[in-house]
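Good morning N.,

You mentioned wanting to compare the apo and holo forms, so I went ahead and generated the holo version with carboxymethyl coenzyme *A. This is what I fed in:
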Amino acid sequence: MAKVTGLEGVVAAETDIGLVDGERGHLIYRGYWAKDLAVNYSFEEAAHLLWYGSLPDGRELAALQTRLRESRKLPEQVRLLLDALPKTLPMMGVLQAVVASLATEEEAVWPPKVSQAERLTALLIAIIAYRHRSLQGLAPIDPDPELDHAANYLYMLTGERPNPDHAKALTAYLILGMEHGMNASTFSGRVTLSTQSDLFAAVSAAIGTMKGPLHGGAPSEVIAMLEEIGTKDRAEAWMRNVLENGGRLMGFGHRIYKTKDPRAEALRIVTERLTGGDPSFELALHVEETAIRLLAEYKPGRRLYTNVEFFAAAVMMAIKLPTELFTPTFTAARTVGWTAHMLEQAGINRIFRPQSTYTGRMPVFGD
Ligand code: CMC
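and this is what came out, ligand included:
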């Protein structure tokens, strides 16, 4: 009998939020192509779509923008906790701890509220920016009420008004990263919420799942790979060496996509707009092409293509986000999808409780 691993092909829930069609390379958020939302809509509009089920009209958008703006300022107890956490704790651990700490008696309610999802989404970028600056001995930057979500993130990290092209590219990345069906972290968040735990505990659980290198931790490893390869002429030998030693090429392969990941395709275009013609972009294209050829040779029939992380890394590098912020930035994006799923789960809740097949020893009968 085949080993039961990884829940491959198992349907864990019905959802109205997102469709991932791995055979056709389709990604749809509530009836809209994610790649269209990424280039034609704002972060706030896409988030409204996921949380409320429709794109906002002018009044709804303005109201959401106001609510997000008002939630961007860090509460005092969050600052105190951020200052108290060990400097050696990586950002994903910081996010997990701080988000869990928001589940005060007042906030740990059932069912979760969409206002909590909005507040947490706004707060996360402020938490990342505060921590990042404080580790460098820099004073925190207050949010700028004139800037939208993505631009504010860059502003609060650097203290400088961002280049509009960078803010646009980041918006596209954040929208493409928002939602992806029953991926590991969304599943983990829904499982936690299904026990009637609170939204903050569920997001904290999802963050812990997100950080692994097989999921959200991949983009920094993509950068490490591109840096180690360094020049086009070294790419093939470097990747052959990894594959011959049973290793994995980061930014390639996907449980669901058996064709090109539409997010990778969209982000390639975004990256090209920012860095087309640069040696770093040329190297990324060459590595992509070589990797797909080598994966077909070493893993025939597995249909391994570029996944979102490969060009996510390229976009984040192009807008000068430090590598240690890649996975936290993915987390800031996916929080919208996680919380939309948690709100949906609460509406139809039944606790997740699968079975396992016992393969251990049995007691000796008849003694
Ligand atoms: N490089 C080399 N071989 C690979 C790769 C890769 N990137 N991905 C899959 N394979 C091989 C794997 O070795 C296995 O071969 P064999 O059958 O000979 O043992 C076969 O393909 C199937 O792999 P699997 O691990 O059973 O596939 P999975 O569906 O469990 O894993 C994955 C999906 C994304 C974890 C995997 O493709 C991988 O490790 N990729 C590299 C890490 C990465 O880029 N992660 C980001 C994923 S996209 C964003 C997200 O979901 O967060």
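Residues 203 and 296 are 37 Å apart (CA to CA).

Happy to go through it together on a call whenever suits you.

Best,
F.
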